[in-house]
Amino acid sequence: MRTFTFKSLFLTVIFMLLGNLAIHAADGELITKQITLTLDEAGTLPDKISANEKNLITNLKIVGKINGTDLKFIREMAGCDVNGKETDGKLSILDLSDAKIVEGGSAYYSDRDDGFIYTSNDKLGNYVFNGCSGLTSLTLPSSVTKIGCYALFNCIGLTSLTLPSSVTEIGEHAFLNCRGLTNFTIPSGVTSIGGGAFFCCYGLISLTIPSSVTAIGSQAFNACSSLTSIYQ
Description:
Layout: H1 2-20, E1 35-39, H2 45-48, H3 51-54, E2 59-66, H4 68-77, E3 93-95, E4 99-101, E5 109-111, E6 115-117, E7 123-124, E8 137-139, E9 146-147, E10 160-162, E11 169-170, E12 183-185, E13 192-193, E14 206-208, E15 215-216, E16 229-231
Parallel strand pairs: 1-2, 2-3, 2-4, 3-8, 7-9, 8-10, 9-11, 11-13, 12-14, 13-15, 14-16
Antiparallel strand pairs: 5-6
């Protein structure tokens, strides 16, 4: 009986250690495999990732509800803090397809003119990833209905962006200076594209605009100097 108990305890410890290895890497070594984290409650992402791992994870998938506290943390992982200052974060690939943005938590961004900015339900808020130049691939939540103003402003490293079919509105300057995008398809449910939405997307070559779009703001595609094909 004693032997059985010891073996059970030993196996339990081993499984716990293996579980920790899901994220743990040697000091200073980037964690390049995808890390998937499930949040049982919005605002708990900072509790799931240690201070050391925060700046080493390059590929992250989040499942569950996320609020301003989580997005602030993600911004820091992606190289930019709440005030737009550079961090040591190396996050490059972010998959939020199974996440849901909800209101609540702390401010994820502070703007000189607009002040502190908080999340709203199912909206990719204004400035949410502004300045996160290290992001190369972003998949948005399947429930998002609106892309806020300047949401991805200066995401100059972004080469892959997936918007869900639930999106109906793209805000002003939403993708300003996303110069790494080359081909982009606007979801079929979108009805309006804000002014300057794709301004200075120099790398954009091909763009598909659905027939559902009834309003396009001023200079929405200004300075898209490489754009040669527009489809409907």
